[in-house]
Automatic annotation (TrEMBL), chains A, B:
<keyword id="KW-0963">Cytoplasm</keyword>
<dbReference type="GO" id="GO:0005524">
    <property type="term" value="F:ATP binding"/>
</dbReference>
<dbReference type="InterPro" id="IPR041715">
    <property type="entry name" value="HisRS-like_core"/>
</dbReference>
<dbReference type="InterPro" id="IPR006195">
    <property type="entry name" value="aa-tRNA-synth_II"/>
</dbReference>
<feature type="compositionally biased region" description="Basic and acidic residues">
    <location>
        <begin position="324"/>
        <end position="334"/>
    </location>
</feature>
<dbReference type="InterPro" id="IPR015807">
    <property type="entry name" value="His-tRNA-ligase"/>
</dbReference>
<dbReference type="InterPro" id="IPR033656">
    <property type="entry name" value="HisRS_anticodon"/>
</dbReference>
<dbReference type="GO" id="GO:0005829">
    <property type="term" value="C:cytosol"/>
</dbReference>
<dbReference type="InterPro" id="IPR036621">
    <property type="entry name" value="Anticodon-bd_dom_sf"/>
</dbReference>
<keyword id="KW-0648">Protein biosynthesis</keyword>
<feature type="region of interest" description="Disordered">
    <location>
        <begin position="530"/>
        <end position="565"/>
    </location>
</feature>
<feature type="compositionally biased region" description="Basic and acidic residues">
    <location>
        <begin position="530"/>
        <end position="549"/>
    </location>
</feature>
<dbReference type="GO" id="GO:0003723">
    <property type="term" value="F:RNA binding"/>
</dbReference>
<keyword id="KW-0030">Aminoacyl-tRNA synthetase</keyword>
<dbReference type="Pfam" id="PF03129">
    <property type="entry name" value="HGTP_anticodon"/>
</dbReference>
<dbReference type="GO" id="GO:0005739">
    <property type="term" value="C:mitochondrion"/>
</dbReference>
<dbReference type="GO" id="GO:0004821">
    <property type="term" value="F:histidine-tRNA ligase activity"/>
</dbReference>
Length: 565, 565
């Protein structure tokens, strides 16, 4: 592939990729769905630089700090690429004292020198979509709204309840550890072990606790009895009825929070997909209250997804210390012990801002959506569903073409002028960059991207001030199958009418089929831009040929996800 | 600012900044305007990684290569942050042989270790918005569409003709140099000298040519006669009438291209702001045909903007070789010899893809819009125009609040439930995170961000299944000044009706005032999302209080720009 004299391979750096074509369209649709939800809840966005002073990131990520990318020392400051969007947000809050409260979202790339598994959305450069609420407020109100937002995002993506929002609380977890007899200095490390329960069976985790981390076997077994429990308010009541647990101050405070949370989630109509899961621990040190994690089908590794693991999963290469660089760059996409992992995660972090600002603490709670993992799940399901409609690459509405017989000039200036008229009216239009194009080539170019309309100009028609509008893909026998001649002066109105009719058709088809598209939540009408005065007739019968090319991008059928447990 | 034990200052790296608040809203509006134009012309987007293998960037930027940021060597590949979006695009084209033609846009950050001038939009991390057309096509058709796109972008931004699109052609320039007797090996370096004419007076440039670069004085003086010339088709005719020039093959080919270009620009109605400017040279080596540069008021440095430079401008620190690191990080925002520079630039580069792919050349033409510079101009003008309406920080449409007398519970669950109803209907709503909030605090929170509507709930009204809707800022005496009671079951419809009425009012006010807002080009109706069945009455008289809070973000008056020369 390399030309003469070029000694390197043409590629992107390991763990990164170019995004293009339909992948890009799907990813953009995910972004716009998520952004719409964030704005619906009054959030504003902040943009921080891709790199930060190295000291800002130091001491925030525990042993994962080794995954941080550093910039070379070229003189001046020493910087690192951001590892997440949370630490830069905390740095911003600490720097900007006039903002004591804010709801902010941030959609941006983060960087981790981790071992990649590209097709599972585990990359070294990947997007995070973060929503955080900062400020001193009454307990659990922002925490509950985060869960509500999470349901709106996944419903908006068309997952229709096929996801589980796992909830737990650091104080509940710490309470369990204290009651089970874990010494104070071992609580964080035992918590890290519990965090692995979604990847490893209990026997492995227990072994790590007792053999690696020196916990008494009795304590480990007690923990084992708690961390298998999950439920909703039933679990809450059960824990509240346990006098030993309630005598623990941390547990009592945690459960009071959880009770409030459930009350608010009920009012928010956001209980359905929630699972209060005592095994949920989250690795990061900075969480201080409620923690969230969203999983769906594909989150778990294949090797442990069904029943109990038959063979013990291979130890992750990441955990084998330092050495073995040889395999570090290897892509683990086909390793069955690697799943997509959680598709969103977060929690409350009341002390992080104080790490920068000292006394001025600003409590925060937030969640981060892993767009690349969400994308890889949607992509895999679309590949599996042969009937899934493919999105279009571009949004061109009209292809402007010319035709003529002998002595055909190509009508290039006329085509440019007609495109100009359409562009001025805000209509998306293209033409072939050829002075004398052949008609079939022009139709091929229009069809290649599923362009719905053509405007065809000929010398005779132009002389009469007329052009032909042709809808692509009409059924045989349709009255407009061969196109309709319209006055040049009516062109914009006639084109708009047809674009609008197509949009309304797509809407009707979706309603009829009960399909759900990315881009709205249930109950929200999908509205079509149209001049107010224009009335549109929609034919009763919708022929196969008129079905939309892009509408039902992500139907319910295209999304497979596990029902809430 | 640093807490105890923290030895570093809280800040972003030099030459970078956090974007927030109204700045972010304005920047997003610029992005959406530009993206809309790009999509209108059928473009698709591609996303490449922020860093590339170091070898990909090597040998592409001449002496500016020293400004490239490298990543540290942490084992594995050696990478650099991208310097522009053009080289990654060429790398992508070379890697993806199934794409021989594409119209692509890319809006992303690029990185240059240059001396910053923050308030002038000269930063080390900044956005570029690139549009490029790749493929073998008939001459000058894509090149002309790039100019058309450029006019749509600046008209869409509301600059209303107050910008100049400078055009020139590498072959015309080379022709001039050849005719004036510049030796072949000096053509590129003499071209670089000409490129400085927007910053330096001719005498300085001439000196560089003769004293630094050893050009004969006679040749320099001949060049001087050409490079002051600018015009449109008049200049083209004048050059074509010059037999000496037309005898030069390069000049002849270049002028043939320019003639086609003018023909197509006429058909595209895109001639008005164009200036065929023989002094336009562009620094980058890879251009092979037409070159573009867009300037406006604020582009030129203050020191040389008016009349002739009284004092010779200070030599740029950048040009003083290598040493003097001390000042390199210093911000030059207040240096009068630094202007914003061009707000967009580009050209044809037919050989760049071949640098990666060898034989498989793909000719390209494109333009890059400097969003941060565009932003800094808009921002400065808004600051100068005290009447300019300020954009809102967020888009919240309804603030849900409660009030009550003695024994007031705060109605928290009811507020959450009403917010939920609104969110489900796609309406942007917020509430105060307080169990028992005071009414004035709730109104303050709503007013702070200019929220247009409130829903106020009280215990008595709730018992009757009713809530109050209150439009903010109605004039005294308005029939709804104190709000209107509506049935809870009609809440969504009643809220929608008022949101729609507000939007239509804003539209009317803009039409009446002949204002131009960011987000559309002339002629395109601004349409309001509304359920199809809903009819809306717009009151004839528009009171001061009902004027839109955000509509006329960037009025003509707010944009100062030089008329096309």
């Amino acid at each position: 592939m390399a030309p003469k004299g070029q000694k390197f391979e043409l590629k992107t750096p390991k763990g990164t990729k170019d995004w293009e074509g339909k992948d890009m369209v799907i990813r953009d649709k995910i972004f716009s769905t998520i952004t719409e939800v964030f704005k619906r809840h009054g959030a504003v966005t902040i943009d921080t630089p891709v790199f930060e002073l190295k000291e800002i990131l130091a001491g925030k990520y525990g042993e994962d700090s080794k995954l941080i990318y550093d910039l070379a020392d070229q003189g001046g400051e020493i910087c690192s690429l951001r590892y997440d969007l949370t630490v830069p947000f905390a740095r911003w809050l600490a720097m900007n004292r006039d903002h004591q409260t804010i709801k902010r979202y941030h959609i941006a790339k983060v960087y981790r020198r981790d071992q990649p598994a590209m097709t599972k959305g585990r990359m070294r450069e990947f997007y995070q979509c973060d929503f955080d609420i900062a400020g001193v407020y009454d307990p659990m109100l922002p925490d509950a709204e985060i869960v509500r937002i999470t349901t709106e995002v996944f419903e908006g993506l068309g997952w229709n309840g096929r996801y589980t929002i796992k909830l737990n609380h650091r104080k509940v977890l710490d309470g369990i550890f204290e009651v089970c007899g874990v010494p104070a200095e071992k609580i964080r490390t035992i918590s890290s072990a519990v965090d692995k329960l979604d990847k490893l069976p209990w026997a492995e985790v227990r072994k790590e606790m007792t053999e690696e981390k020196g916990l008494a076997e009795e304590a480990a077994d007690k923990i084992g009895e708690y961390v298998v429990q999950k439920g909703q308010k039933d679990l809450l009541s059960k824990l509240q009825a346990n006098e030993t647990l309630m005598a623990n101050a941390s547990m009592k405070a945690g459960l009071a929070d959880m009770e409030l949370l459930f009350t608010y989630l009920e009012a928010f109509d956001a209980l359905e997909n929630v699972s209060f899961d005592l095994s949920l621990a989250r690795g990061l040190d900075y969480y201080t209250g409620v923690i969230y994690e969203v999983v769906t089908e594909g989150s778990a590794p294949l090797a442990t997804a069904s029943t109990a693991a038959v063979a013990p999963p291979k130890p992750s290469k990441k955990s084998s210390s330092g050495k073995g660089r040889v395999d570090f760059d290897e892509d683990r996409s086909s390793d069955p012990s690697v799943g997509v992992g959680s598709v969103a995660a977060g929690g409350r972090y009341d002390n992080l801002v104080g790490m920068f600002s000292g006394k001025n603490q600003i409590p925060c709670v937030g969640i981060s959506f892993g767009v690349d993992r969400i994308f890889s799940i949607i992509k895999a399901q679309m590949a599996a569903d042969k009937n899934a409609e493919q999105p279009r690459n571009n949004e061109t509405e009209v292809f402007v073409m010319a035709f003529g017989g002998k002595g055909f000039t190509g009508l290039v200036k006329e085509r440019l002028a007609i495109c100009t008229t359409l562009w001025e009216a805000g209509i998306k239009a293209e033409f072939l960059y050829k002075v004398k194009p052949k008609l079939p080539n022009q139709f091929n170019a229009a069809e290649k991207n599923g362009c719905p309309l053509c405007v065809v100009i000929g010398e005779d028609e132009m002389a009469q001030g007329k052009v032909k509008i042709k809808e692509m893909g009409l059924r045989d026998g349709h009255p407009e199958k061969e196109g309709v001649l319209v006055n040049l002066t009516d062109l914009v109105a006639e084109v708009r009418k047809r674009i609008l009719r197509k949009s309304n058709l797509e809407e009707l088809i979706q309603e009829a089929a009960g399909l759900k598209v990315v881009g709205g939540i249930r109950g929200e009408p999908e509205l079509v831009k149209a001049p107010k005065s224009e009335s549109v007739e929609v034919p009763e019968k919708i022929s196969e040929a008129e079905k939309p090319a892009e509408g039902s991008l992500l139907s319910q059928e295209a999304i497979g996800a596990v029902p809430a447990s």
